[in-house]
Amino acid sequence: MNAGRVQGKRSKAVLAAICWLISASAFAGDHEFYRGKTIRLVVGYAPGGGYDFYARAVARYMGKYIPGNPALVVDNMPGAGSLASANHLYRVAKPDGLTVGHFSGSLFQLQAMGQKEISFDAARFEYVGAVAKVEIVCGFPKSGGIDTVEKWLATKTPPRLGGTAPGTGGHDTSRLLAATIGVPLQLVLGYKSTGDMRLAIERGELTGLCTGWESFRSLWRKQIDSGEFVVVLQALPKPHPDLPKVPLAVSYAKSDEARQLLEVGAHNVAAIARPFVMAPGTPKARVQMLRSAFTATMSDPGFLADAERANLDIAPLTGEELAKTVFDVLKTPPALLAKLKQIIAPQ
Fold first, then answer.
1. Which residue in 56, 107, 98 sits closest to 80, CA to CA?
2. Coarse DSSP helix, strand, coil percentages of the chain, rounded to the nearest 5 percent
3. pLDDT tens digits for 198-229?
4. Residues 148 and 240 placed together within one structural domain of the fold
5. Which of 268, 283, 317 represents a domain boundary (last residue)?
């Protein structure tokens, strides 16, 4: 065998070994990085709503799956329908692996639409995973007189529905339903959480709400079971297992374009609505550790038991699955995005 070729192979082997040792050393260092540290889960909404519930459940269990077993604490940063926290994660948070954001995934679609208030680039975030879908349904207190979608369509007085801001599932889906199936409504914005909207309904400020089914199930369980509160419509591609007889919005779509808008603006966004996200530039080894820990948490018996007690659905995406889905949303055809923008975020 040619001596030079042998020497070359030996040199490559030595170089590969050196690279592996450097990589292993760095990885070991990252494994020790979290020991004695605290990870902040920054939630874009006030306490008392679905995002806060999910973040606190994750915080109780995820640390034991991260090398070094760091503590996880929830830090609420409400504002602009969670946009304040998303912009903070992108522009202010250090990319050191100690800050994870949990905000509305609908913001990714608003970025694709060119919403000027958004100062992040979703393609540069690091994605840890998504805990569940936000499966938007609409409901009303039975005492208000709307207990079917037909009565909602026929009412002469638009019901007052609550919302936080553009870029949230409740706001965006409510406007989409008005445009595609013609339900009358008046949106009242500025609430910080679903819990705040529940209080507003009890005070008579609001007459109904479109939000995630898991939030309804957590906050109105007794009233729904007793018939005092009625879910009349679901903005899903197929009925939720808990709501087999509640009609689908797409069944009332007035055109093929309306059906397409519901699919892109409501159905597709639902899967990425509850993301856990890290700042751009976070070391890849730390991203991978948190991805692995998140995935393990999603099947932790204690976590699942807590979620069941709190009536929280668990339908997770891995970090890789979440990233791919977000990138697909960013590639939505421009003409369809322009139509959605006219509906959801008119200037």
1. 107
2. 50, 15, 35
3. 999 999 999 999 999 988 988 899 999 999 99
4. yes
5. 268
